Amino acid sequence: MKLTISQEKLSQALNLVSKAVSSRTLNLVLAHIRFQVTKKSLTLTGSDGDFTIEHTVDTEGEREGALLVPARLFVDLITRLPKKDVTLERQDGMLKIVSGYSDYSINILPDENFPSLPLFEEGKLAQLPAGLLRSALGRTTFSALKDPSGTTSHYTHGVLLNFHEDNLDIVATDGHRLALERMDNPAPEIKDRSLLVPTTITEELRRALPSEEDKTVEIYFLSNQVFFKFDNSVFGGSLFDIKYPDYLKVVPKETKSVANVNRSALREALQRVLIVFKVKEQNPVVRVETSGDSLVISSESQDVGKGVEEMPFTQGSPFADIRIAINPAYLADVLAVVDADTVDLHWTSEVNPLKLELPEKPGYTYIVMPIRMD
Amino acid sequence: MESLIVHADLDTFYVSVQRLLDPSLVGRPVIVGGDPHGRGIVAACSYETRAFGVRSGMTARDAYRLCPQAVFVRGHGEYYGYYSRLVKNILEDFTPEVAPMSIDEFRLDFSGMERMCPAPSALAERIREKVYLHTGLPISLGLATNGLVAKVASGQAKPDGYRVVPPGEEAAFLAPLPLGKMPGIGPVTERMLTERGLTTLGDVARVPLVMLRALLGKHGEALRMKCKGEQVITARETRTVKTLGHESTFKDTADPAKLRAILAGLTAEAGFRLRGGGYTTRLVILKLRYSDFETHTHQRRVDALFSDDAIFKVGCELLESTFSRRVSVRLVGIRLAGLVRDLHQLPLFEWQRRIKRQELYAAIDSVRGRFGLESLTTLTAHQARERLPAEASA
């Protein structure tokens, strides 16, 4: 195997596929990245045994071949090389890396036992603009939890893609708040199919998806595996095979009161009142209420002190005075990711869910459950 | 403006409560804790027994050897909490700043209340009188400009008295006291200091800082400040609860039904404290000790739980998987970890059901808070209490 490639191209590709490599793996093979060189391309693969990222770079290989390089070490080395051409060559059972005045030989493994993505010519489910999926995931994924151990499957550890009649719903929840993005079903022939994709995959996917308008992402579904194919990359992994709770049931359809608030003013106010809570305080609480024509946010922490923020708001219809206690982080999270000038807060009572919608963007819904104060 | 801290410490609290429940114990040597012929340790002992060398923490058997004439009584955990809350309520009539330091110790802050307060000694007399009149419990007080000196002063005031350390006299008050009086000087530190000829707190205050640093590391500086009677500001005064648990030693049994019944009682205690702090638990740990002292713990991750029945169900399943040997068991314990203070955060799914359960437990807890844990109990836990003491004394 021999190839010459620019350092920038190589480290970019390595950074992408190394996202799937687990630092805690017990399997030696999985601590490696697979290199496959053909006459026309270089294909890199990283995997934790389930979640796999494959990326192909168009480049001319001098000699074809495949091998496994130690992921951590190789990424560390390549990203620190000067921005010049790098020559990689298999020599005496080692990988020789030459770039400018640098010359390294590192131990490698033969290309054996590395998990490979199945050939998935069939099983194509849908195709949609990559930018659309990227921004939809950006507005939803943050609501779900990341499984710290990577071993359990729970509905809070995944993002649901639900193809249902005319809609594709993207849903994420941690059990206390929920984000729902509804878009037109890109594959209307699919009447009922839901995929619960682990958050570890959607999080990396969101970052890697191109934001250009004209690029597309293809979704494949085979038995319990899902693949996202875009540009020269494939993201693949197992779906959670568990039942997702009926999220539509918890979205309040009718509420007693609507208030329209400036997004950045609300966000900045929440960030300031959060300072009143110690960093370690696990669950901060703020009261949000309307008083005359202003929205009042107040917080109090025994150890630090208290703070009050007031801002104007516009009454919607219907309207009644609002009074609710919530975790301010839940509201600040969503205000950070949505791109809108104002947000609508829908409210019914102190115990009913608080609903946030974007007047400029129908189809997006965010729900926060309140904290009971008595 | 000087600050004024009052450290209140109930004298031989468990014994005093037992004497309220059974007046015949007044004036007699009393030991609260385990069975003198069986197992268990001394949880508290009256002043009469201390003359014989009895100390809390020793085994009941040893205490019996030292003081066979003592009356041994079993503790009534739920009454202690009740009386402790009662005393706290009374203390709150004097100042809103009452911080419980343990079940029988409170720190009262009167700083900034000079104009409302009488002189310290008159204040102390009023507090002691009111607590005694309303509860019948003797309480000792230490009054000083900071909590640490106040605590040491309350120790010097015992039994049934008070001690005022005027501003500026802190160092002079501490100087003649032996090392062991200072919180934070345990047997190991005490031995290290004594070996170097330091026997009183005044000695430690006078020693050059470098020597204490060499001896005790960074604690040396704090200790020297403490011995001078100066306020030491620690990074984190309030402790956050990480886990909470209860365990019980009993007459060995291999009967699974009996073990479950004991577990039910322990779960009720742990659940009461869990909800009292506004927590939910995410990890349930069961501990089992066989009669040969082989000890096993099994744990399970759970969704946020707060109700006794849900925790008990997990506990029973863990008990079943842990109890694998055909040997009798002498101790069962349950511990709740992964505590998150989100009892009042409503969940998205089935929140109406959650509100109902929360209201049910709020009602149960308020009854238990007023009348003791035994006042309202599940059938399983009730059977445990019915059967166990009778067999233990048999």
Tell me which CATH architecture of the domain at 244-393 in chain B applies here: 2-Layer Sandwich
SS content category of chain B: alpha+beta
Radius of gyration of chain A: 25 Å
**Total count of helical runs of at least 4 residues of chain B:** 15
CATH homology group of the domain at 244-393 in chain B: DNA polymerase, Y-family, little finger domain
**CATH topology assignment of the domain at 244-393 in chain B:** Dna Ligase, domain 1
The main sheet of chain A orders its strands as 10-6-2-3-4-18-17-16-11
Oligomer: heterodimer
CATH superfamily of the largest domain in chain A: DNA Polymerase III, subunit A, domain 2
Helix content of chain A: 10-25%
Write structural notes for this entry:
Chain A is of the alpha+beta class and 374 residues long. Chain A has helices spanning 7-18, 71-80, 130-140, 199-208, 247-250, 263-274, 328-337; strands at 2-6, 32-37, 41-47, 52-58, 61-63, 65-70, 85-91, 94-99, 102-107, 109-110, 124-129, 158-164, 167-173, 177-184, 192-198, 216-222, 225-230, 233-238, 257-262, 286-291, 294-301, 305-312, 314-315, 323-326, 342-347, 354-358, 361-368. In chain A, helix 6 (263-274) crosses helix 7 (328-337). Chain A is elongated. The mean pLDDT of chain A is 90. In chain B, 43% of the residues lie in helices and 19% in strands. Chain B contains 15 helices and twelve strands. Residues 235-239 and 389-394 of chain B have low confidence and may be disordered. Classes of the chains: A alpha+beta (374), B alpha+beta (394). Chain A binds chain B through residues 152, 173, 175-178, 245, 250, 280, 282-283, 303, 327, 351, 353, 367, 369-373, and chain B through 238, 240, 301, 340-342, 344-349, 351, 355, 358.
Task: Offer a few descriptive terms.
A: 374 residues; alpha+beta; DNA Polymerase III, Chain A, domain 2; nine-stranded antiparallel β-sheet; 7 helices; B: 394 residues; DNA polymerase, domain 1; Dna Ligase, domain 1; 12 strands
